[in-house]
Amino acid sequence: MLGTPGVRREARTGSSVSLADRTHLHIRVTSAGLKQVDVAAWRYSDVYDLVVRNGLVVSPEGSRRADIAILDGCVAAAGTVTGRARRTVDATGLHVLPGGVEPHMHVENEFLGLSTANDFYTQSIAAAFGGTTTLFDFANTPRGGSLVESLERRREQMGKSALDYAVHGRVLEAAHLTELADAVRAGCPSFKVYTTYPEVGLMVDDATLLAAFDRAAACGALPLVHAESDPIAAFLTEQARREGDLSWSRYPDVKPPACEAEAFERVVQYARVTNCPLYVVHTPVAGAVDSARRARAAGQRLLVETCPQYLVLDRSLYDDPDRGHLAVCSPPLRRPSEAGALWQGLADGTITVIGSDDCAYTRSAKEALLERDGDGRLVPDFTRVVQGVPGIETRLPLLLSEGVSRGRLTIEQVAALTSANPARYLGLYPRKGAVRPGADADLVLVDLAAEWVLSASVLHTPLEDCLYEDLRVRGRPVMTIAGGRVVMEDGIFTGERGRGRFLARGTGG
């Protein structure tokens, strides 16, 4: 059965929990789940499991030189650490960030009958190389099926992960809303809804969307919305079909920026009417950022996510007849001017989360439904290409290189965008997303001076192609620690299949 929210399952409000009789934590737990962990009285161990020394420890509030002591999978101390350790890591010259929290990916997922390339174990390997230590994925709730049962099935599928994991629900119809309170009690207080994809049965109508927001507000759940206007996309796709142009380069034109801007503003207004908090995923356009800026200024609780592909890549990839289909994702890649608006939204705090939306398909899967001409060349038809691109391993390196190295973001902002903020919004903070006593010992050590070249040959996913092929980046994770255990070091994965734990969550802060 799904667990109940909380960091230690035996913890009650105001209780103390002994960890192997060597440390002592005071944990305050609300009825909605963990809200705060305080150090009450530490009995420091003579021997820590691991001490990371001399690193520049990064939090959203600032960075400081500190040692980090780890015991029984938790941070035992952060500051000047004395005492012995079974292992000591010298982090001189490195930045130490809280392990990445990936809020948005699609693994062991089918679309148009085709499956993604990774399973949850191989995905956790790629994640560890990218400095991510906590994974979120979505239950594949079917129409006519049970929301709670689908959460349980997804939890079982994710059990092969080497990293800790949590599950979002998925709502497709009004019947699923009757189980929403049960999903919250089971530690899964977030769910996804789509305003598009009727061809595969994912789209909800406006009435169901309003009902979902209203029910979420009543039971403390958080909707995550894929916001694209299906009427606009359907109208322009049919126009392209009549004109006989279904080329890769036409694809972003049938889902223009207005396609997302309209749906974004619509769901923001629905959330306002129902007084419901809202999280909008993978935002790539300036119009949506402007709408979010207005809503947040008016006091609306609106959480906006974007993805590295929309910051770094652009629609020119679709002009390549041999590789353009590999970049087909939804929403599409945009013009560089849209990326400029996203960087500004990150800098001013309008966009507060960066997820990967990792949905990795092999080239053969991308081409499986396409026809070929007499010479064996692909016949372009973007409507028959499975949508999605990889990104979990490159999320942090791209932000270090294109953000920190270029002066667009500070390292503290990166820690917030990739770890602290998603942990906080999704009910895991401060167990995740923080480097402080009582938190899980999830850390990533990064070398901001390391220069390397992205390529399919150096990444850890079973794909023949890399959308960032030959891109030189500056900044790289060199060690990832999850639950106090080193899972990636010097280019070698040392994690264990099935070691990850299911994370039951309370409502976010």
Give a structural overview:
- 28% of the residues lie in helices and 25% in strands.
- The chain contains 14 helices and 24 strands.
- The strands form 5 sheets. Strands 5, 6, 7, 9, 10, 21, 22, 23 and 24 form a 9-stranded mixed sheet that branches. An 8-stranded parallel sheet has the order 11-14-15-16-17-18-19-20.
- The longest helix has 18 residues, at 257-274.
- The protein is globular.
CATH architecture of the domain at 100-425: Alpha-Beta Barrel
Described by its quaternary structure, the protein is single chain
In CATH, the homologous superfamily of the domain at 100-425 goes by the name: Metal-dependent hydrolases
Total strand segments? 24
Structural category:
alpha/beta
Task: List low-confidence stretches.
Answer: 1-43
Q: What global shape is seen? A: globular
Question: N-to-C terminal Cα separation, in Å?
Answer: 26 Å
**Within the CATH hierarchy, at the fold level, what is the topology of the domain at 100-425?**
TIM Barrel
- Proportion of β residues? 15-25%
Radius of gyration using CA atoms only: 22 Å
Q: Mean pLDDT, nearest integer? A: 91
Q: Specify the helix fraction band.
A: 25-40%
CATH class group of the domain at 100-425: Alpha Beta
Largest sheet: 9 strands, mixed
Instruction: Please report the number of helical segments.
Output: 14
